[in-house]
Amino acid sequence: MKRLATLVASFSVFAMLGCGGGSSGATPEAQAPGAAPPATGETPAPPAATEGGGGEKAAEGPAKAGGGLEVTIESRSGSQLTGTATFAEEGDGVKVSVRIGNAPPGLKGLHIHEKGDCSAQDASSAGDHFNPGGHPHARPPDEPRHLGDLGNIGVSPEGVGQLEIVVKGANLKPGDPNSFLDRSIVVHGKKDDGGQPTGNSGPRIGCGVIKKK
């Protein structure tokens, strides 16, 4: 009987060990073979590009509202002057670029005049300086001044002159009171000394009508 009790006790201990009664060494379910490990350190997807972020819009730049105009400057008052002027709206003004040749050397007054008419041999048909604001005459960068006051263009001993200026407040819009369109650009025979009423710049030796072709 005693031997039977010993056998029963031994069998109970064996059964407990065989059934995994201890927790040590057990494999957790999350780490079972073949199970995917938890996701860590994932790289998030890049954000979608915003409109214009590729630079396409920046590359286009602002459109020039009034386009560009090229004007031929013809000789007047017996001169041999030749030249061209280009006009293009830029920001809140008009960029004026002038090149002349066969001109007397030195500084020569350069102005926008109120009428788009260069028909007279002395260019008197171009009228007075373009001055929609009713200001006194002055030379850039002095303010206030006529909107048409461009200052002086320097001419080399070889008779060549160049000038580039942005005139704030001007435009190239048809019918606008501050528009250079349908006016004239005039080169004078003397230096604009800044005096009143128009700078004492002498005869009009070159003239070109600012108009769309």
Care to describe what's here?
With 213 residues, the chain is mainly beta. Helices cover 10% and strands 29% of the residues. The protein has a domain at 68-210: Immunoglobulin-like (Sandwich). Strands 1-2-3-6-5-4-7-8 form an 8-stranded antiparallel β-barrel. A hairpin with a 6-residue loop joins strand 1 (68-75) and strand 2 (82-90). The longest helix is centred in the N-terminal third of the chain and has 17 residues, at 2-18. The protein starts with a helix and ends with a strand. Residues 1-67 have low confidence and may be disordered.
Distance between the termini: 130 Å
Q: Tell me the major beta sheet.
A: 8 strands, antiparallel, barrel
Fraction in beta strands: 25-35%
CATH architect. name of the domain at 68-210: Sandwich
H/E order of the elements?
HHEEEEEEEE
CATH topology-level name of the domain at 68-210: Immunoglobulin-like
Quick rundown:
By secondary structure, the chain is mostly beta strands. The chain has a domain at 68-210: Immunoglobulin-like, CATH 2.60.40.200. It has two helices and eight strands; from the N terminus they run H-H-E-E-E-E-E-E-E-E.
Describe the secondary-structure layout.
Layout: H1 2-18, H2 56-60, E1 68-75, E2 82-90, E3 93-101, E4 106-113, E5 149-155, E6 161-168, E7 183-188, E8 204-210
